[in-house]
């Protein structure tokens, strides 16, 4: 049975949010907005946690603690937005587990649920599942995808921005698959193109200058296990053809060799680009995509994961405290800072920020200090569009159009699709620009 929670509060926004939060963590929540509604749950089995507001329309939440019409409970917590010395003294004299103030911090509430579940020996949903921390809806879907696809032999294509955890997903699939062989990871974009074939498929002695001995490639090394091919869209097209053949036949031929070597390898590929955009741009072959994408998993960016950023930050801080023998905690404004920052570097940026903030803290409080910078992917010299204060709308429009045309090799159809307009609009805009240039001469 899941852990159970009854929330008694007349603030409907609070009860709905708290119930949703608890439900995502694996709890069975019940909600009441008055003493009378609370008594309707008398038939329930003993509750694991009772969350009470002091000020209710028909009395005080403390009245429920001695009410015989209430279900039994293991722990009661007071949550109030109107604290007073009198109520605090009264709570101390009663079997109250804690006296908390609104607004309730998500990390504080999460810790409360974790303690309650631990008393029952229950693992909370989304808490370090598959080696990944996250309880938002998008991450719950990722966990479900891993559970669903891992036992099969299907190839998997994982997409997501840099720093979202693509390799963690690949490792989780490998672990959950039960395959006895090793997990081997290779970044196709980090290996020189002329050496990538040798790294992947191996080579025979003397097959090229410097090949002084026979070498088993990553496919052979991963036999019986999983091969993770990161940044698959960075692989040269000629090698993509050979990779497709290996995936189709289940055999590999070393560079300079003639022998076909059978391999039992499950392939998980990843890209930080949208797969459809990679196909449109011609950096990923259609036939290889279909072979790799037996199943697709898309990872959310950190700014889309809500309070997961706080869970992850606390995990990183706990790790630093354990490593250095400290007990530092986040400053009071940390939640606000973390939730407002866009985290363009995703979890990798968050980890770096927590470590830097920890090392720069003098006392027991850690103040979050994200770096204020524009990621290179957003800069004009790397394919992005550069705007500056003072530019007119016409100048911005022209810059966007010309940059997008250049990106797609002056293909007006693809440019129109990318900008969400018709080809005729592109043609008219170019005509206006040419007309302006003619008048300026």
Task: Name a few traits of the molecule.
single chain, 13% strand, five-stranded parallel β-sheet, Rossmann fold, 441 residues, disordered C terminus, 4 domains, Helicase, Ruva Protein, domain 3, alpha/beta, 17 helices, globular
Quick recap:
By secondary structure, the chain is α/β, with parallel strands linked by helices.
Describe, in plain words, how this protein is organized in 3D.
Helix content is 42%, strand content 13%. The protein has helices spanning 12-24, 35-38, 85-92, 106-120, 137-149, 166-177, 193-201, 218-221, 237-249, 275-281, 286-292, 308-324, 334-340, 346-359, 393-407, 412-419, 423-440; strands at 4-8, 28-32, 49-52, 55-56, 59-60, 76-80, 98-101, 156-159, 183-187, 226-230, 251-252, 261-262, 266-271, 295-298, 329-330, 365-366. Strands 2-1-3-6-7 form a five-stranded parallel beta sheet. Strands 9-10-13-8-14 form a five-stranded parallel beta sheet. Strands 4-5 form a two-stranded antiparallel sheet. A hairpin with a 2-residue loop joins strand 4 (55-56) and strand 5. The radius of gyration is 28 Å and the shape is globular. The termini are far apart. Residues 132-359 form the Sigma-54 factor interaction domain. The modification 4-aspartylphosphate is found at residue 53. This is Sigma-54-dependent Fis family transcriptional regulator. Residues 4-117 form the Response regulatory domain.
Q: Round the mean pLDDT to the nearest integer and report it.
A: 80
Strand order of the largest sheet: 2-1-3-6-7
Low-confidence stretches: 374-382, 436-441
Structural class: alpha/beta
> What is the CATH C-level name of the largest domain?
Alpha Beta
Query: Which descriptor suits the 3D outline?
Result: globular
Strand content: 5-15%
For the record, give the distance between the C-alpha atoms at the N and C termini, rounded to a whole number. 79 Å
Question: At CATH's second level, what is the architecture of the largest domain?
Answer: 3-Layer(aba) Sandwich
Tally of helical segments: 17
**Could you name the CATH topology of the largest domain?**
Rossmann fold
Please tell me how large the radius of gyration is: 28 Å
Helix content: 40-55%
Total domain units: 4
- Biggest beta sheet attributes: 5 strands, parallel
Number-wise, the strands total 16
Domain Sigma-54 factor interaction: 132-359
Modified residues (4-aspartylphosphate): 53
Domain Response regulatory: 4-117
Pfam family, one: Sigma54_activat
